[in-house]
Amino acid sequence: MMRRVGGFFCFCTLRMEILPMTHPKTKGHIALVGAGPGARDLLTLRALERIRAADVLLYDRLVDPEIMELARPGAERIYVGKDVGACKWPQGRIDRLIVAKARLGLRVVRLKSGDPSIFGRACEEIAAARAAGIEVEIVPGITAASAAAASIGRPLTERGETDTFVITTGTCKPGDAAPDRARLAHPGTSMAFYMAVERAAQVQADLMGAGAPAACPVEIVTRASTPEERHVATTLGALSETIAAEGIANPAILFIRYPKSLARALAGTGAVIAA
């Protein structure tokens, strides 16, 4: 407002209770969302909400394209899959990208097949978000073992037969030793091996070397919950041979069971079993 003071004009400011002309940037958000094993109708409601609200979605190789169709039309979609033999998207690059997008005030969804907390490298992405001061959440999803077991009608545990259920992997970080599989070769144990097709011979040798019987039943399920799903039944003693003969490839879950009844039966015959 201009006011006359003596023979001069001066500009005076009014103190007004109004919002400033510039607004602080909206704080971004990162959600690590489990897309489930493949089938779109196995998404959780919370996962669906995050996908529909996202400004940016970064998705993996195994995420079903039908799930990506649930995103709003204006959302940015970025493929960050790690194909075998290719490393266009190393983990560090993904970490930097999700942080950069969130710093723009965007709602970022890092969409992972299965459950983000199970062999999904969630730790690295959570650490990157927290180091940048960005809010991050995990939205759990149905993991491949649950879907695979459901598809073949086999519970993951069975009263009186298997009272311990283990999720483990056949492929570790380069340079790391393989898991101590001798701990798993005990009666009453049900095991779900992820990323183990190429290491099946070693898994087989480790378990049998620790005392697991060759007769332990094995169920192999590939691409669980998708139209390409396949199921092959075998035994621990024939595991690597069956995988080679059937041409089984990842993604697959190897279910290996050591039922208590099998241990009792072998004990009755005097066969050597795991302690």
From TrEMBL:
Residues 30-239 form the Tetrapyrrole methylase domain. GO terms for molecular function: uroporphyrin-III C-methyltransferase activity. Pathway: Porphyrin-containing compound metabolism; siroheme biosynthesis; precorrin-2 from uroporphyrinogen III: step 1/1. InterPro entries: 4pyrrol_Mease, 4pyrrol_Methylase_sf, 4pyrrole_Mease_sub1, 4pyrrole_Mease_sub2, CobA/CysG_C, Siro_Cobalamin_biosynth, Uropor_MeTrfase_CS. It comes from Salipiger bermudensis (strain DSM 26914 / JCM 13377 / KCTC 12554 / HTCC2601). This is uroporphyrinogen-III C-methyltransferase. It is an enzyme of class 2 (transferase). GO terms for biological process: methylation; siroheme biosynthetic process.
